[in-house]
Design brief:
By secondary structure, the chain is mainly β. The protein contains one helix and ten strands; from the N terminus they run αββββββββββ. It has a single domain, classed as Sandwich (Immunoglobulin-like), CATH 2.60.40. Strands 1, 2, 3, 4, 5, 6, 7, 8, 9 and 10 form a ten-stranded antiparallel β-sheet that branches. The chain is globular. Keywords: Signal.
Length: 126
């Protein structure tokens, strides 16, 4: 490899390393309650699905986020069955909806914490 080719290769490699890493807006965050966690910016949303209740725990900067005054809806899609329910605050950092749920499928929610903009969150259910 000649000198020009080596310098060009080194320059290209350095430029590639200098580019910011691009990732999905949704990442998996820390699991605290045995659920499935999606992280958006600095907020974690952990979904815990039980046969008759779905609970979403909310964490901001790795600490419980207050859900008093929060609103939201959650849609659970399992096979060709789609159920949309309101989420209501429960506990210090949780929202919940009651219904009948099975394993598998997907969930999506729009959650608005008091004084904040709404956030759309999705989870793949196991």
């Amino acid at each position: 490899m000649n000198k020009l080719a080596r310098h060009s290769a080194a320059l290209i490699a350095a430029a590639a390393l200098a580019l910011p890493v691009i990732s999905s807006a949704e990442e998996q965050g820390e699991v605290r309650n045995g659920g499935i966690t999606t992280m958006l910016k600095n907020r974690d949303y952990e979904l815990v699905l039980k046969p008759t209740v779905v609970t979403v725990f909310v964490y901001q900067d790795e600490k419980p986020a207050a859900t008093q005054g929060a609103t939201g809806t959650i849609t659970i899609t399992q096979g060709d069955k789609k159920t949309t329910l309101p989420l209501t605050p429960t506990g210090a950092n949780a929202l919940e909806a009651k219904g009948t749920f099975a394993k598998g499928g997907k969930a999506s929610a729009t959650i608005t914490l008091a004084g904040r903009k709404p956030q759309d969150v999705t989870w793949a259910l196991k």
